[in-house]
Design a protein that fits this description.
about 325 residues, mainly alpha, 12 helices, globular, disordered N terminus, disordered C terminus
């Protein structure tokens, strides 16, 4: 009778389980770094978009959205030409759903920015990770730990301090409704991305995001376009930053739960605030600096204590 038949442990179970745990931990670590890069790229995109919306050679919100999608689609096609294996569409229904919902998100958010201050719009839009975490309970059966919930609250409070300078007062007008709607559709997009990562890779998902979002944005891009070549060069960099941000975020969703990804996504407005101070010379307030510290502390707390402890393996 073998050792397993006598009730002893399987010889290979321990090393295999240990190797799997190490690989999973390494994957989560890489995913966190990807979300950090995504936050910086999203922040750079937003700062450049703000720069391009000013002055005589300013782009409209719809035009910037179209540029973002066109640049993303062209870079994706170039990547597929170099590495054809990157283009692997499987669940086309969800791919197109992601594209259309992502296009709606961008349009709604820019419409909100046209009606209310950027701080209010950004704070309301940044509710989407919280909404996505709630959706993940039903969609994936994910149960965030109390530490994860507390970390998300702490990180969100830091964002509120950064964007509101400690005194954010919101009304109930059309602009606020548009920003909340953008957050809702962004949460749907996050859940769809999380679902698709089991079958589709990040470059393919982003390509369909551009294809599905472009028809949504085109009606808002009518009117006279700027002709300054320097402005177009900056717009191209903005599109490349958006490409990097989306692909890195989508790739990270393959290894992290919606709840933990939501915490790391709170770094996006913090990065935007810091980059605006460096590149645009916007002032940094005391409340804003405190908010950055609180937000980063929330991310660190959720990363260290937010995961659900692994149950000990049963002996055979």
């Amino acid at each position: 009778m073998t050792a397993v038949a006598r009730g002893g442990p399987e010889p290979a179970a321990g090393p295999e389980a240990s190797a799997a745990e190490v690989a999973a931990a390494r994957g989560r670590g890489v995913a966190r770094l990807l979300l950090l890069g995504s936050a910086v790229s999203f922040g750079l995109m937003a700062v450049l978009a703000r720069k391009l919306s000013r002055g005589d050679a300013a782009f409209s919100a719809g035009q910037l959205t179209v540029i973002r999608f066109v640049v993303g689609a062209l870079v994706s096609l170039a990547a597929f030409r170099v590495r054809p294996a990157l283009y692997r569409p499987h669940n086309r229904r969800l791919l197109w759903t992601r594209g259309v919902s992502g296009g709606i998100v961008v349009v709604l958010y820019f419409l909100a920015l046209a009606r209310i201050p950027a701080g209010e719009a950004g704070m309301l839009y940044n509710l989407f990770p919280v909404i996505a975490t709630a959706m993940s309970v039903r969609a994936f059966g994910e149960r965030p730990t109390i530490h994860l919930v507390l970390a998300l609250i702490l990180a969100t409070a830091g964002v509120a301090l950064v964007l509101g300078n400690g005194s954010l007062h919101l009304g109930l007008g059309a602009g606020e409704a548009l920003a909340v709607s953008a957050a809702f559709f962004a949460a749907i997009s996050a859940v769809v991305i999380r679902t698709m990562r089991a079958t589709d890779n990040a470059p393919t998902i982003f390509y369909y995001f551009c294809l599905g979002g472009l028809p949504v944005a085109l009606p808002f891009a009518l009117g006279r376009w700027p002709h300054d070549p320097r402005a177009w060069a900056v717009a191209a960099v903005m599109g490349l930053a958006a490409y990097a941000a989306q692909v890195l975020m989508t790739q990270a969703y393959g290894a992290l739960s919606i709840g933990e990804a939501a915490i790391w996504l709170q770094l996006t407005p913090l990065a935007q605030y810091a980059l605006a101070a460096v590149l645009l010379g916007e002032p940094v307030s005391g409340a804003g600096a405190l908010g950055m510290v609180v937000g980063v502390a929330g991310v660190a707390y959720g990363t260290v204590l937010g995961h659900r402890p692994r149950l000990p393996a049963r002996r055979a």
